[in-house]
Design goal:
about 230 residues, Diaminopimelate Epimerase, Chain A, domain 1, 9 helices, 4-stranded mixed beta sheet, alpha/beta, about 10% strand
């Protein structure tokens, strides 16, 4: 990536602004909720104290024009010393990504699973049946499930509920990464995701499954009528 003065100024401003924020919620341009910040900070600090790995959350309104999310994250990583994992969300760009400061850190968490658009194997099957265009697509989509961010972000709701959706989905993903790192390091997190967050996920799954079942019904009905029309023409 060609480094521009604009990007350099942006990163400098980012570094200055985030000094005013707490350590693990590195940047928040969206939610600005003290309770949310405290939850992230508490979990992030515990994870760091027990594993030596810093897990930081960036919540951006929008990425700088012409800059990919991965390039933005790589510049931000230069601000940190020690093992660091970034979870980044950009609202206007509809982008979520996870990047680690060293490749060895990816062994402690499953990036593909966390960022999967399907929350469960059943949802992945439904998605594969509807959207797969080939057998290879079907197999790939079938094996892609367990997402803890995108299924929540993709849930449609009222515009005024957006902040609640963002905080639930990003904290859920943050806690998932933290939990996986802790599990890989054989430590327990006192401030990990509790039952309340599990109930949120369960509710989203129920709503999503209802939508998928209805979509499958419409798909099957359309196939039936198309086949019927072909038989009538013959």
């Amino acid at each position: 990536m060609k480094f521009s003065r604009g990007l350099a100024a942006l990163i400098l401003a980012l570094s200055f602004q985030t000094q005013l924020l707490a350590e693990y919620l590195y940047k928040d341009e969206i939610i600005n909720n003290p309770k949310f910040q405290k939850e992230v900070e508490t979990l992030g600090l515990e994870l760091y104290e027990k594993t030596g790995i810093s897990l930081r959350l960036l919540m951006l309104k929008e990425l700088p024009s012409g800059i990919a999310i991965a390039d933005y994250e790589k510049e931000v990583l230069k601000d940190f010393d020690g093992p660091t994992v970034l979870l980044t969300f950009s609202e206007m760009n509809s982008k979520v990504d996870i990047i680690a400061s060293d490749k060895s850190l990816y062994q402690y968490f499953d990036k593909k699973q966390i960022l999967s658009p399907s929350a469960s194997a059943a949802q992945a099957l439904a998605m594969a049946i509807i959207f797969a265009r080939s057998w290879e697509d079907f197999k790939e989509m079938l094996g892609d499930s367990g997402g803890t961010i995108l299924p929540l972000l993709g849930n449609k709701g009222k515009e005024e509920d957006a902040l609640g959706k963002y905080s639930a989905s990003l904290y859920n993903g943050y806690a998932d990464v933290a939990g996986q790192i802790a599990s890989s390091k054989n430590v327990d997190l006192e401030h990990g995701v509790g039952k309340s967050h599990e109930y949120i996920i369960l509710g989203i799954k129920i709503l999503f499954y209802g939508f998928l079942l209805y979509a499958i019904y419409l798909y099957a009905r359309r196939k039936f009528y198309l086949r019927k029309e072909v038989n009538e023409v013959q």
